[in-house]
Amino acid sequence: MALRTVLIMLTIQSWSRSEPVAGPYDVFIDQWTECPKGLVDPFFPVKTRLVRNRHNHNDMFLFANYTINERLDDSSSMRLEFGSWSSGGGWKENAFIMKFQRLCSTLNNLAPRTLQALERSLSNSKKVSPATCPWNPETYQITNFSTLEVKSTIPALFYGKWRINLIIFNPKTQVALACFRVYARTTPKMPFVKTSN
Ligand SMILES: *[C@@H]1O[C@H](CO)[C@@H](O)[C@H](O)[C@H]1NC(C)=O
Ligand SMILES: *[C@@H]1O[C@H](CO)[C@@H](O)[C@H](O)[C@H]1NC(C)=O
Fold first, then answer.
1. Fewest CB within 10 angstroms: 53, 127, 157, 171, which?
2. Residue 142 C-alpha to ligand 2 middle, in angstroms?
3. Nearest ligand, CA of residue 117?
């Protein structure tokens, strides 16, 4: 029998026996939207379009136009508010929160592959692409960003279904500079799942 089959069986067995709550993970994005009105002030409207990859149902391509009014750079901070989906139904707000200073450096350290893929998908109003962090005030177009590029160097996370508010803000004034809401799932890392193309 192929080694691959044996390993998959072993992995599945160890899951059902111990049901780990956290560990090495895969991330899958289900939805990527604007933050609801009132979550942060000002409101950041954005129309996103997600197109499912017909060859890999875990993959979607993101299209959006996004306007920022202030420069996003290493003087900006980022906060990720994780709402968790409870087994009884409903979202538990702020199940945990991650805060990072120095936006560009943090993205480079925590999610280098995601940042590079995002920069390649970004073009500014003069059609210059890639548009790399720091980002000047502009309307940016996101074209065909594969959600499978969302990966981080954080070695372990809780498993579950999340509604994440991704808020970029000025740490001095606490004023929001950008906001997205992303729905995602973290599942135990499968060695043989195709997570990229
Ligand atoms: C973004 O703007 C461009 C140019 O105006 C337009 O062609 C495209 O459809 C827009 N994309 C989305 C997702 O709204
Ligand atoms: C998006 O990227 C995928 C994979 O790289 C490609 O197959 C697809 O044609 C692209 N779609 C558009 C609209 O560029």
1. 127
2. 13
3. 2
For ligand 2, whether the C-beta of 61 sits within 6 Å is yes
Which one of the ligands is nearest to 56 CA? 2
pLDDT one-digit tens code per residue, 50-109: 999 999 999 999 999 999 999 999 999 999 999 999 888 899 999 989 999 999 999 999
| Interatomic CA distance for residues 144 and 131, integer angstroms | 14
Burial 60-84 (b: 16+ CB within 10 A, else e): bbbebebebeeebeeebbbbebbbb
Question: Taking CA 78 as the corner, what is the angle to CA 121 and CA 184, rounded to the nearest 5 degrees?
Answer: 60
Other C-beta atoms lying within 10 Å of the C-beta of residue 42? 11
Q: Are strands 138-146 and 60-68 parallel, antiparallel or unpaired?
A: antiparallel
Which atom from ligand 1 is nearest to the alpha carbon of 64? 13
The pTM of this model reads 0.85
Which residue has the CA at smallest separation from atom 12 of ligand 2?
144
